[in-house]
């Protein structure tokens, strides 16, 4: 964003001709993400039972044997495919809400800290040091042990611990943008500070933010599945990918499909987002601020 | 900045971070309510005097700052007191900490062995087929939960083809699967790191000079470029240590590895807060210490860093 030699605007699709790999990343990432979003949005129509219908006669059926349970069933005879589709709700909700919450809090604080400096600025930098020393899983273990498990707590914890990544990123952009001519010009016109911040600085700081947001959603889906696997996340009654993995673990000797398919669902989802994030990085951040 | 001031400043920062983290952990644990009531929740015949005696023994009737001070003192002297149910915390950690360090070092080793050659290869063939394959593979590696990879390894190499043990600590072969699991996850990040750093170093002028002198490509890459890239790579590896510890916590549980992660999860299950407070604090202090060490070494090797 800070390059001084202005390249003429090139359409996104024109770039595909230059790099077939970028095209592959975009198409694969967008396809995976769209399919997943559609499945989750229409999960109630596709599988009205909610993946919780018990059928003890069909317990532990193997996958690829019948149309009724294409991916097999679990020890209670519940359909694995239906549970995966419904489980996607929790993953997507946690991923999206936590990242959106962090980006809002982090951007506001980062804009303020970068523009006005002062106490908040040093607070952001010190908080970042502390966050580095306390990985999210450790923080979650400590807090969840006290407040009890639940995805609402996990979302809040993610925002509390991750806003600082955005704040640091925005702060950095603001510091360099403040030196640019167009911002200096706006200052000399006598524009009010809030107008400079929101109409001149923020739009130019968006690129890296969008990249970080995409990768953050992906990473938080992984973190949520880890916490639910540890029994610190989603309620075991509702289907969730981490929960299915932890149930399936005790049947790993005899029924591999309970553990394999939810893991593949996580992988495809997160891979889709990572591909999109990687593609966005090449498009929006050629200088590599978000690396 | 003179070396001495640089060291002092970084150590001071690290101490501040440690205090902040332990304060947070102690405060969070303190919010749990009255441990004396929780401890005795199971037994029916608890009198008020019993509760008072338990609070006395645990030091719970002291103000928070006194308890926090005691906790810091116990961390410094490594005299961590007793857990609720399992005896001396020091004894428990004396077993768990070395297992975790062993696993961390083994995984980091595996990851370095894979990612440095692959990263260099990708950087040298930038934009080529092998670079793109490595890039996609590393994206795939970033896309599944580490514990699931562990379970898949167990499924493949312990159940379908019973070659390696799925859990335990008794034999060296038990180390292979957990170390491989975390090692591969770390590799996904590290390959990209090595590639970026190598590309950056290879574009420097001293590399051009080395080539212009007519040195052969091997010595340009390994003697001139890699050595310079290594400094930045080591720093990033140090910064990654926190992620490594976070990953270990979950993977240890999958393989029943008797480390700090398993100990912490067991402490949660038993609501053993003194034990949990100690394990989490010690892990956080380890992360601060590793980051400090990397920072110092980096600053001492490369004087340019001290300015920033």
Descriptive tags:
heterodimer, A: 291 residues, mainly alpha, 0% strand, elongated, B: 308 residues, flat
Question: What would your notes on this structure say?
Answer:
The complex is a heterodimer of chains A (291) and B (308). Chain A is mostly helical and 291 residues long. Helix content of chain A is 71%, strand content 0%. Chain A has 11 helices and no strands. In chain A, helix 5 (118-133) crosses helix 7. The radius of gyration of chain A is 22 Å and the shape is elongated. The model of chain A is unreliable at 1-5 (pLDDT under 50). Chain B is mostly helical. In chain B, helix 1 (3-30) runs antiparallel to helix 13 (273-301). Chain B is flat and about 85 Å long. The mean pLDDT of chain B is 85.
How would you sum up this structure in a few lines?
The complex is a heterodimer of chains A (291) and B (308). Chain A is an all-alpha fold. Chain A contains eleven helices and no strands.
Please outline the helices and strands.
The complex is a heterodimer of chains A (291) and B (308).
Chain A: H1 12-18, H2 20-41, H3 43-46, H4 80-116, H5 118-133, H6 136-147, H7 151-177, H8 181-189, H9 193-229, H10 241-248, H11 257-284
Chain B: H1 3-30, H2 35-39, H3 48-58, H4 64-77, H5 89-124, H6 129-141, H7 146-160, H8 173-202, H9 205-212, H10 217-239, H11 241-254, H12 260-269, H13 273-301
Helix pairs in contact in B: 1-4, 1-13, 5-6, 5-8, 5-11, 5-12, 6-8, 7-8, 7-11, 8-10, 8-11, 9-10, 10-13, 11-12, 12-13
């Amino acid at each position: 964003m800070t390059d001084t030699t202005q390249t003429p605007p090139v359409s996104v699709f024109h770039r595909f001709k230059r790099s077939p790999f970028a095209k592959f990343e975009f198409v694969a990432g967008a396809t995976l993400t769209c399919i997943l979003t559609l499945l989750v949005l229409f999960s109630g129509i596709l599988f009205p039972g909610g993946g919780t219908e018990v059928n003890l006669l069909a317990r532990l059926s193997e996958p690829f044997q019948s149309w009724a349970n294409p991916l097999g069933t679990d020890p209670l005879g519940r359909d694995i495919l239906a549970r995966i589709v419904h489980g996607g709700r929790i993953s997507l909700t946690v991923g999206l809400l936590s990242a959106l919450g962090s980006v809002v809090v982090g951007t506001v604080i980062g804009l303020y800290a970068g523009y006005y400096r002062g106490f908040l600025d040093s607070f952001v930098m010190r908080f970042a040091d502390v966050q580095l020393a306390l990985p999210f899983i450790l923080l979650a273990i400590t807090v969840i042990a006290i407040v009890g498990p639940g995805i609402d707590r996990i979302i809040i914890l993610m925002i509390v611990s991750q806003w600082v990544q955005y704040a640091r990123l925005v702060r950095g952009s603001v510091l360099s943008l403040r030196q640019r001519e167009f911002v200096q010009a706006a200052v000399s016109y006598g524009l009010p500070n809030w107008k400079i911040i929101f109409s001149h600085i923020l739009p130019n700081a968006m690129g890296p933010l969008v990249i970080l947001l995409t990768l953050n959603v992906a990473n938080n889906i992984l973190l949520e599945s880890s916490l639910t696997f540890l029994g610190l996340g989603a309620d075991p009654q509702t289907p969730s990918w981490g929960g299915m993995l932890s149930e399936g673990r005790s049947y790993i000797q005899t029924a591999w499909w309970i553990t394999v398919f939810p893991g593949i669902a996580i992988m495809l989802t997160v891979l889709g987002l990572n591909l999109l994030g990687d593609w966005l990085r090449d498009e929006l951040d050629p200088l590599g601020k978000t690396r | 900045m003179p070396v001495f001031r640089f060291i002092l400043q970084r150590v001071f920062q690290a101490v501040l971070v440690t205090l902040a983290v332990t304060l947070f952990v102690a405060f969070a644990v303190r919010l749990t309510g009255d441990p004396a009531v929780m401890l005795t929740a199971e037994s029916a015949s608890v009198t008020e005097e019993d509760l008072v005696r338990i609070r006395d023994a645990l030091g719970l009737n002291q103000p928070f700052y006194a308890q926090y001070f005691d906790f810091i003192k116990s961390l410094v002297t490594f005299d961590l007191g007793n857990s609720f149910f399992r005896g001396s915390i020091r004894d428990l950690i004396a077993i768990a900490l070395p297992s975790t360090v062993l696993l961390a070092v083994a995984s980091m080793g595996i990851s370095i062995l894979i990612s440095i050659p692959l990263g260099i290869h990708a950087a040298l063939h930038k934009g080529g087929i092998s670079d793109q394959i490595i890039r996609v593979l590393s994206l795939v590696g970033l896309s599944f939960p580490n514990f699931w990879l562990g379970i898949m390894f167990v499924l493949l190499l312990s159940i379908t083809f019973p070659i390696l043990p799925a859990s335990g600590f008794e034999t060296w072969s038990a180390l292979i699967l957990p170390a491989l699991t975390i090692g591969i996850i770390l590799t996904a990040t590290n390959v990209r790191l090595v590639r970026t750093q190598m590309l950056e170093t290879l574009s420097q002028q001293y590399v051009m000079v080395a080539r212009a002198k007519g040195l052969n490509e091997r010595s340009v890459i390994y003697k001139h470029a890699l050595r310079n890239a290594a400094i930045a790579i080591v720093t990033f590896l140090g910064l990654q240590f926190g992620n490594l510890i976070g990953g270990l916590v979950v993977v240890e549980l999958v393989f029943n590895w008797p480390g700090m992660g398993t100990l912490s999860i067991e402490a949660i299950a038993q609501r053993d807060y003194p034990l949990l407070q100690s394990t989490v604090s010690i892990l956080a202090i380890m992360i601060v210490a590793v980051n400090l060490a990397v920072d110092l070494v980096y600053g001492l090797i490369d004087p340019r860093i001290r300015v920033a």
